[in-house]
Specification:
Blueprint (H helix, E strand, L loop, with lengths): L6 E5 L3 H11 L4 E5 L2 H10 L4 E5 L7 H10 L8 E4 L4 H5 L10 E3 L5 H48 L3 E5 L5 E4 L1 H9 L3 H5 L6 H9 L4 H15 L6 E6 L8 E8 L7 E7 L1 H8 L1 H12 L5 E5 L5 E4 L4 H4 L15 H17 L4 E7 L5 E12 L5 E10 L1 H15 L9 H18 L3 E8 L3 H7 L1 H17 L6 E6 L2 E6 L6 H20 L2 E5 L7 E5 L3 E8 L6 H17 L5 E3 L8
Parallel strand pairs: 1-2, 1-3, 3-4, 4-5, 21-22
Antiparallel strand pairs: 6-7, 6-10, 8-9, 9-10, 11-12, 11-15, 13-14, 14-15, 16-18, 16-21, 17-18, 19-20
Length: 591
């Protein structure tokens, strides 16, 4: 791909000059023209060019002032600028020097090739300047990064609790960390702490060979030498190094330096605590059993195949009193959830990362309980995953309570239809779907026409029966993807989604559904009144509905206005005699 043409902004109010410059420069450069200094300033600020040509003699704002203002803008001050002037103007218009570094002046006659060459030279100079500036910045960045990297590395090494020394290919110490120095000072070798660098590690081991435990020092050097000569890739060794008042254990690790560096890294890690932990393991196991056997929840220890190694006594509540040791922990999981649980278990074995799961558990009597569990891996001394511990709780009652609370929050307690809160959410979702599909949706506002007399005559309990039946009838008139909600009292809202991309066709579809609803709701209601201690009474009630409908597409109308439109249509149906359908029209209120 060829480089884009350099872009030149010409600021000149003389048409003859503009024509001359266009003829001279257009074949090689992309030109933009400004007829005044103010226009040139605005164009340069909006899209900085590669070079600016300025006529000195312009009305309102001359070339000198235009140049000064351009140079005052930090984004434009380094752009090459050339004055264009008639002969003698440069000297008569302003006695001061041309502002800005390395700017120049063109005077007639303008010779095309010379002009283009001078412009190319200025642009090339600017390219070189920018390249040099970028190089200086990159060099400074790299130098700073190197200093930060060295400081970062030294900080990390000194923060390590392990004693660390770096040896060259001959086994000479070239660097130690602060922990190494402290260890040497605390163990009676202050000279080694301050003067370790430059000492042969072999001589350190040989000096220790004559001391108690000297065989360990000789073994350590043999391992270092094996890694230095590449006869083995790594070396690790545990040894005792007892202080007068404490028995201590260390682990020595020797790893080769990464190419192209030569030498090895020697790390001495104090593992006294882990050794002491091994001695306390049996006490911890007894403690673990004491805890798990008194927990309300369920604790299971599994091998890496998922077989049960230990189960807390509480499992008897789920599985009965049977011996679980060695059985599969997956066989009592509900078949629909089993594969998911098995997959999570194997992922924990592979990665050591536990999972938080919910699944159904089949109890001894054939029932199901909802179980919430968290798993964790137990590793051996070599870091291999040996066991998986699973702690579980029966959350059946809690989940049922949460679902009940959720239902109460989003559904009408009487009709079990979505309430206003869920209606708003469903309407927003339908409007978003309309945007994606470009299909119209419809909103219907429905009010029962003859509801209040029923309440007045028979009481609210009977009115509730009618509302329940009306809700049932509404749901039979729409698709599963549509929404029927109770808005309040005897008012209902229906949302139709995904109708048609054509408004007329969508209106026809909505009208068909609205008419179906109107007919269905106008059918007689047979309501049974049950009173304790008396015979049930059955009444027949006739109740129609007034329906307002409005179409929508995307988010052209907000949610509140959309409801108002449908509500307006419903009131128009009421005023026109009830038991009618009215479409809202933005112009006159009725389609």
């Amino acid at each position: 791909m060829s480089d884009p043409m350099p872009r030149i902004l010409v600021i000149d109010n003389r048409p003859a000059n503009l024509l001359t410059l266009r003829t001279t420069l257009a074949p090689e450069f992309e030109l933009q023209f400004a007829g005044s200094g103010a226009q040139g300033l605005a164009m340069a600020a909006e899209s900085p060019p590669d070079l600016i040509l300025i006529d000195i003699m312009m009305s309102e704002m001359d070339g000198y002032e235009t140049c000064r203002r351009l140079k005052a803008d930090p984004r434009l001050q380094d752009i090459p600028m050339i004055f264009v002037t008639a002969l003698g103007e440069a000297g008569t218009a302003r006695t001061g020097p041309v502002p800005g570094p390395a700017d120049t002046v063109f005077t007639p006659p303008i010779i095309a090739e010379i002009t283009r060459r001078r412009i190319r030279n200025l642009l090339h100079r600017e390219q070189l300047r920018r390249a040099a500036e970028n190089y200086r910045k990159q060099l400074a960045t790299r130098e700073q990064a190197l200093l930060e990297s060295e400081a970062f590395t030294r900080t990390i090494l000194n923060s390590l609790t392990e004693n660390l020394a770096v040896l060259d290919s001959q086994g000479v110490i070239v660097s130690v960390n602060r922990a190494w120095q402290r260890f040497a000072e605390e163990n009676g070798a202050p000279g080694l702490a301050t003067d370790s660098v430059g000492i042969s590690y072999r001589s350190v081991c040989m000096a220790a060979a004559g001391q108690p435990g000297g065989d360990e020092a000789l073994l350590a050097w043999a391992g270092i030498e094996a890694v230095l000569t590449r006869t083995q890739p790594h070396f690790s060794h545990e040894y005792s190094c007892n202080a007068p008042d404490q028995a201590r254990w260390f682990r020595m690790r020797v790893d080769p330096m990464l190419a192209p560096c030569e030498g090895v890294v020697v790390v001495h890690e104090d593992i006294t605590r882990s050794k002491e932990a091994e001695n306390a393991l049996r006490e911890q196991e007894a403690f673990f059993r004491l805890i798990t056997e008194n927990l309300e929840g369920f604790v299971a220890v599994l091998d890496i195949e998922g077989r049960r190694v230990y189960n807390s006594p509480s499992y008897a509540r789920l599985l009965g009193n049977r011996n679980l040791c060695g059985t599969s922990s997956f066989e009592d999981i509900h078949p629909a959830d089993r594969e998911r649980v098995v997959g999570a278990f194997h992922a924990t074995v592979a990665t050591g990362i536990g999972h938080h799961l919910e699944f159904r558990f089949v109890t001894a009597d054939g029932g199901t309980r909802l179980i919430e569990s968290r798993g964790g891996a137990i590793r051996d001394n070599a870091g291999r995953i040996k066991r998986v511990v699973v702690v579980s709780h029966d959350v059946t009652e809690r989940r049922a309570a949460e679902e009940k609370i959720h239902h109460l929050a989003f559904y009408d307690a009487l009709t079990q239809l979505p309430n206003r809160l869920l209606l708003n959410d469903r309407l927003q979702q339908t409007m978003a779907a309309s945007k994606r599909s470009a299909c119209y949706g419809a909103l219907m506002f429905i009010d029962l026409d003859n509801f209040k007399p029923l309440n007045d005559r028979h009481g609210h309990a009977v009115g509730d029966l009618l509302l329940i039946e009306a809700a049932h009838r509404l749901k039979t008139c729409v698709r599963a993807a549509d929404t029927v909600a109770r808005f309040g009292g005897d008012e209902f809202v229906v949302i139709l989604s995904d109708l048609h991309t054509d408004r007329i066709e969508s209106s026809t579809q909505a009208a068909i559904v609205a008419e179906k609803i109107r007919i269905r709701l106008s059918e007689p209601y047979l309501l049974t009144i049950r009173c304790e201690g008396t015979t049930d009474t059955r009444i027949e009630h006739h109740c129609t509905a007034s329906i307002g409908v409005t179409l929508f597409l995307d988010h052209v109308v907000n949610l509140d206005d959309l409801l108002k439109r449908a509500d307006t249509g419903m009131y128009q149906a009421k005023q026109a005699g009830r038991n009618l359908i009215r479409f809202h029209d933005e112009k006159d209120g009725v389609d």
